[in-house]
Amino acid sequence: MPTSFAHALPRAFPRALARAFPRALRQRWLRTCAAIALGTAALAAFATETPTAHWLPTWTASEQPVWQAGELPLPTGVPARLDNQTLRQIARISVGGARARLVLSNRYGREPVTIGAARIALAAGRGGIDARTDRAATFGGSPSITIPAGATVTSDAIELALPPLSELAVSLHLPKPFRPGGFHWDGRQTAWLAPGDATRDATLPDATSFSGRLLLAAIEVEASHGAGAVVAIGDSITEGNGSTVDANRRWPDGLAARLAPQGLAVLNAGISGGQLLRDGMGESALARFERDVLGQTGVRAVIVAIGINDIGWPGSTFAARTPLPDPAAMIEGYRALIRRSHERGIRAIGATITPFAGALAGTPIRGYDAPPRKEALRQAINAWIRDSGEFDAVADFDAALRDPARPEAMLPRYDSGDHLHPGDAGYRRMAEVAAAAVAGVAVGAAVAPSAATD
């Protein structure tokens, strides 16, 4: 019933007939007509209301502390000090949105860092940008901000419509001396450093480069109502080590290409050297699960793809005196992640540990795949992941990548060459397996939160 008609009913009522009604009935009639008018207006508003947008992370890089020389047998690969330079980093997002925000982190910093200017644009290759899309980022209306040690900041909304799976360039001017305390070790993406404030420059001809990530922790988009996220928490295999640099061929990238059309972002929370139980080249999965998974907005599912370094590091160059973990301890670690996920209504997908016979042979890293007890532990953990029924679904990466003639080793066509990390073809196969697992848990509707269990 149109609102105008409902309002007209009392007026259209014949005066003579209205006078024939007792006063109480006439008042009841007026109240009824008013209620009809209000109800009709509410229904009309509900019918024409557009779904509300919300801020959703579409890309993340898990931060880890910078280690000192001699602490680990690998170089950090990032500058020890920056001073009056522009840092430009490239990131391929998953879902798109009408507006964007930047999340910058100085979580592990020991000193404040000043951002003199920050800008975002669509990337144009080799550190260049599409100048037509160049936009400034502000923080509380200011173009600059100082981030205290241990802090994280989020920019104001940036008016830039971003297509799904687009590559963005984020440029930060660092006007004052800065010594990074945290970073992301292996971004599989070239980052660029140019002198002075070059944040507006379409190209950076005088830039130097490195492959880690600094300060940029996440990119958020104003996504449509109903959009959500899947987080992949893991180690260097999730991070994409062994894939082609600057090509976005990690397995979470392949998963993002499949899920973005469904409105599902894929957040890569891989850290090289990451472990389930122990800290290593970053905090353990148990320690960082709140930050990297549960603390993200809109998460529908998590893929737990970690554990290979819990097995491979002990007795190797990385941790020569560390004993192998007990299988029960690893299983309890997985159970803790499952329980914490379910408490938040998030589905937990378990990924089996990939084969690693001969891993890192011919490199300075010794003993990663020895002794034979490591393979027995891998098999035991994989059997529990597959058969226990405690995960909501299983992404059986081991079955997908192993050599049928030698199950402890990776099939050569999937191997990057170091016998530990897949190459592009292997990651493509893993993306297919992960997509099938995500489809199997119907992440369009989150599970109901449950009480914690022991």
From TrEMBL:
Gene3D superfamilies: SGNH hydrolase
Superkingdom in the source lineage: Bacteria
Record GO terms (molecular function): hydrolase activity, acting on ester bonds
Family annotation (InterPro entries): GDSL_Rv0518-like, SGNH_hydro, SGNH_hydro_sf
First and last residue of the signal peptide: 1-47
Keyword annotations from UniProtKB, A to Z: Hydrolase, Signal
UniProt domain SGNH hydrolase-type esterase: residue ranges: 232-429
UniProt protein name: SGNH/GDSL hydrolase family protein
Organism: Cupriavidus cauae
